[in-house]
Amino acid sequence: MRKFLVLLSFVLLVGLLAACAGDESSGESSGDGGEGGGLEGEITLYSPETPDLTEELAAKYEEIHGQKVNVHYAGTNVLVNQMLAEKENPQADVWYGGGGILPFESAVDRGIITPFVPESAEDWEVVENGIKMKHEDGYYTGAELFVLGFSYNTDLVSEEEAPKTWEDLLDPKWEGKIQFPNPAASGTATLMVLSYMMQHGEEEGWEYFQKLAQQANSIPDSGSGPTKSAAMGEAHIAVGFDFMAYDHKAKGETVDFIVPEKTPILVNPMSLVQDGPNPEGGKNFMEFMLSEDAQQILANWHHIPINPDVESKTPLNLDAISENAVDLDIDWVNENYDRIRNEWQNNIN
To answer: Which residues sit opposite 316 in a β-bridge?
Structure first.
């Protein structure tokens, strides 16, 4: 009887240890993204970019790495505010996109992003050919390139007569035929205003935009709205990013794009979220974003790829546009961004 009780105790002890080991194993592979989860945990991506684009990127990553990517879509300002609200308990691992570097620059001191540079970008210069490719302390890295310029309706405007400089927009022949986004609402248009003022000063800048506003038949809040209007013939000329025009053109609409002689050219960045639940997964996704697979997807959506091994689907690439890049004083932009946006309504009648 005594031998039987000892044997029974041994069997129960072995079973208990096995159950504990099973619990530990289950915790490690549960995919909660917590400590020890590593690349086995799911990745959460915050992005304001086109949902179909980000879902395609997520699907390709999952296909290659077997790791789930949950995409959370909202506007840039909404996402920034959400990350600020979640600072004590971050929910995202990666933030990708925001119409260029400005939202990321302003986020650096807010404690919502943390330094990480993908291996393939470690040797990049911070600024190459007048374009800031990554943050000097590694808080963000460019994933693609955006060019601010002029879309034009090819049924209404020939390539020869289309404006080639920002000053050309003031030609009397364009009166009532131009659209540009509202800088009080659109980051795209705020970039336009800040860039001009950096080159010409605020006094001359406000004079310029007073005149430009009088040329417009509409100043919508949406950054993509003017380009859509040009494609539909509701405007002859529109201010917007290059991919907006080429996306409409690829759908058979009568629109094309002009890169102004001197204009903002920005990387559209990605960043690792501070204290995100799955930092290793986030880093791996950022590495993927510079791979040929991801860059090809971006190129297919008419974005300018940053990986030299991927060919752009538009006439624009880094070599073709670098001479047009205007040197942006990022410190000045950060100091004046909110003020200029707030003053727009008071200065432009």
So the answer is: none
Distance of CA 145 to the CA centre of its chain: 9
Residue 217 has pLDDT above 70, yes or no: yes
Pair (179, 198) in one structural domain: yes
Residue 297 — φ and ψ, nearest 5°?
A: -65, -45
Residue 98 is predicted with a pLDDT of 87
Residues 158, 293 share a domain: no
Q: What is the DSSP letter of 134?
A: B
Both 152 and 258 in one domain: the answer is yes
Q: Domain residues for 90? A: 41-145+266-317
- Return d(Cα 238, Cα 152) in angstroms, integer: 6
Per-residue model confidence as pLDDT tens digits over 33-58? 333 334 568 999 999 999 999 999 99
C-alpha 142/C-alpha 219 separation (Å) is: 29
Q: What is the widest separation between alpha-carbon atoms in the chain?
A: 108
- Report pLDDT for 77: 80
Calpha distance 44→28 (Å, rounded): 18
CA distance linking residue 156 with residue 255, whole number of Å: 10
φ, ψ for residue 232 (rounded to 5)?
-90, -5
Tell me the per-residue pLDDT of 297-311, one tens digit each, with 9 for 90 and over.
999 999 999 999 999
Query: In 3D, which of 42, 48, 33 has the Cα closest to residue 269?
Result: 48
Judgement on whether residues 211 and 156 belong to the same structural domain of the protein: yes
Q: What is the CATH number of the domain that holds 343?
A: 3.40.190.10
Same domain, 61 and 155: no
The strand pairing partners of 271, in sequence order, are 95
